[in-house]
Amino acid sequence: MTVSPRNIHLIAPSGFCHNPDAAQRGIDRLRADGHRVTHTDIINRREQRFAGSDSQRLADVNDLARLETLPDIVLAVRGGYGASRLLPNLDYKSLADRLCGRPVALCGHSDFTAIQLALLAQAGLQSFSGPMLTGNFGAETLSDFTLDNFWLALTSAQFTLRWQTTPQQLSTSGTLWGGNLAMIASLIGTPWLPDIRDGILVIEDVNEHPFRVERMLLQLLESGILARQKAIVTGSFTGNTLSDYDNGYDFSSVWELIAQRSGLPLVTGLDFGHGHDTVTLPLGARAELNVNGSDAALAISGHTTIGSAPLSQ
Predict the structure, then answer these.
(1) What is the pTM of this model?
(2) What CATH superfamily classification does 158-301 receive?
(3) Which residues are catalytic?
């Protein structure tokens, strides 16, 4: 997919960039495509396991409200851990005043989900759950699927994702939200989790055994959150290893139990999350979910895009 050059501003609100070569590869690729990448010095910033002190990482986000010229894209370097420490001190009002309704896209996933959901809850600010600098743009082999879906979501006022799933019949609509399941579960009972009614909840995770995923989903169920949703869509759940002890207990067992207990339709198989291939989802957008047999379609609209104008030279 051919796109106009964009102004991309990096932020590092979570873990230390332990693979600076991959980060630099991502920067080089973006620049080779004509994009302007700024704030690159943060890829070498470190304090303990974090990408800088709490105040430095907090400033990455809060300073967006004070930039003289807004970038087209704000791109997280990587996930890890650290975003949760920042949530009480984010300047939600200033960020809302500066960013809401503006053609700027905040992009990332994994640990960044905490900031994305907090901004949605406290500032009504939409963002994009999608690729990050190091793991995606800096991968040894860049995924054309990921790249095409990234630009599709950021530049299209309406678009539809299609994939194959377990056969069923379903037609529903609601607010699209979700992201990394561990981060969603960690926000339960806090002001940082948006109260989404009639939602289509899309979830993914990495390095989590099926029983841990089940436990987090049961927490969402028993806290009343799933009762307010219209459907659950599962993305990629990678990096886990089953053993003989599991005796056939796998993710399909988890999905079956959660569907039974929640009464919600559960649609599997979306390429979304920590895998090599991932779609990009605008959190807080409007979505229509239709499944006809094994053909699933998610039509998305109502989100702010970066528009069609190229970056000024």
Answers:
(1) 0.96
(2) LD-carboxypeptidase A C-terminal domain-like (3.50.30.60)
(3) 110, 204, 274
